[in-house]
Design brief:
It contains five helices and two strands. It has 200 residues and is mainly alpha-helical. The chain crosses the membrane at residues 21-41, 76-93, 129-148, 155-174, 180-199. Keywords: Membrane, Transmembrane, Transmembrane helix.
């Protein structure tokens, strides 16, 4: 028993040391990965290929004409994706904006040390996933009708913002203020990215 206690103590000390070193180690590791990624582009031709016009709008897309490209396969995959997303969006909105009232059916976030009374309902998280599904549907429809270009960027940025919202809610353990979040994202993130895509 004495050996076991000593080993547990040494493990606790090691964990404390590691938590102090973790931020510095991960910053260094991130910078190292960034340098390696940038180095991997040294042998590539970085000139921008000529953009191809989209079939419906004639606006330039973000990629050139591709050899061997089969539009039927692309349209079939995209159409199937959109049909599934239409049904998913309907049920996601229906279930998340009319959540169950029975306590046993309400899902919750649990963190270490939380009691049942202090746990946070996943209502906002479920709604964020519903928003993400709807934004994915809109992004797919925009790809079909306008192609992947500057017009798509105005919808694609909403899709990215909904992903960011999900990460923030998960990172905060569900204690994130959802009504406050969207105005901040709309003003800073969405506006900045959309203006950048339009100007470039």
């Amino acid at each position: 028993m004495v050996v076991r206690k000593n080993s547990l103590r040494s493990n606790k000390i090691d964990i404390k040391k590691m938590t102090k070193l973790n931020p510095y180690f991960f910053v260094f590791l991130s910078l190292l990965v960034l340098v390696l990624v940038l180095r991997s582009f040294s042998g590539f031709d970085l000139s921008i290929p000529e953009q191809a016009p989209y079939r419906f709008t004639g606006y330039l897309m973000w990629f050139p004409e591709l050899k061997g490209y089969d539009g039927n396969k692309f349209d079939t995959a995209l159409l199937f994706n959109q049909v599934v997303l239409i049904f998913s969006s309907y049920f996601a909105i229906k279930w998340t904006y009319n959540p169950p009232t029975k306590r046993s059916l309400i899902t919750r976030f649990y963190s270490a040390g939380d009691s049942v009374a202090m746990s946070v309902p996943t209502t906002d998280f479920n709604r964020a996933i519903a928003i993400y599904i709807v934004m994915t549907l809109l992004a797919g429809l925009t790809i079909f009708f306008a192609g992947v270009g500057k017009i798509w960027a105005t919808v694609g940025v909403l899709h990215n913002a909904s992903e960011f919202l999900i990460l923030l809610i998960l990172g905060s353990g569900g204690k994130f203020n959802l009504p406050v979040f969207w105005p901040i994202i709309a003003i800073f993130y969405i506006s900045f990215i959309t203006i950048t895509c339009i100007l470039l």
